[in-house]
């Protein structure tokens, strides 16, 4: 769901603490698998891994569960991931102005192994979060 991507991105770039850990550049935060140039570290990339229908709530609104993976390439990856957890674990997003999303909340899900990127010559780590999305009711077409 594209609106969920945008809500996550806005949450990340809106936090000065996270941006400062990425050398003060919002451009170091991005969506998808495309990494920036090899010398452009630190950087943070996120993408949707899966989306499955969840439980029925309220008046039969289906909650969707989306899993997102966040990859961090940085020597200070521990600090960046700690900040991600503070930003996203247990967070209820403000969804005013969205067309399809009625509510979004997120929880921390998984912490991957410590890695080393030999091309970029920097440490890297992946973490996952689950996002529970309740869509807005759609009028019949």
Number of domains: 1
CATH class: Alpha Beta
CATH architecture: 2-Layer Sandwich
H/E element string?
Answer: HHEEEHEEEE
Strand content: 35-45%
CATH superfamily: Myoviridae tail sheath stabiliser
The major β-sheet equals: 7 strands, mixed
The CATH topology comes to: STM4215-like
Low-confidence segments:
none
Distance between the termini: 20 Å
Q: Which structural category do the helix and sheet elements fall into?
A: alpha+beta
Judging from the principal axes of the Cα atoms, what is the shape? Answer: elongated
Protein described:
By secondary structure, this protein is of the alpha+beta class. The chain has a single domain, classed as 2-Layer Sandwich (STM4215-like). It contains 3 helices and 7 strands. It has helices at residues 2-13, 16-21, 77-88; strands at residues 29-31, 43-57, 61-73, 91-92, 101-111, 115-117, 122-135. Strands 1, 2, 3, 4, 5, 6 and 7 form a 7-stranded mixed β-sheet that branches. Strand 2 (43-57) and strand 3 form a beta hairpin.
Question: What does the secondary structure layout of this molecule look like, with pairings?
Answer:
Blueprint: H1 2-13, H2 16-21, E1 29-31, E2 43-57, E3 61-73, H3 77-88, E4 91-92, E5 101-111, E6 115-117, E7 122-135
Parallel strand pairs: 1-2
Antiparallel strand pairs: 2-3, 3-7, 4-5, 5-7, 6-7
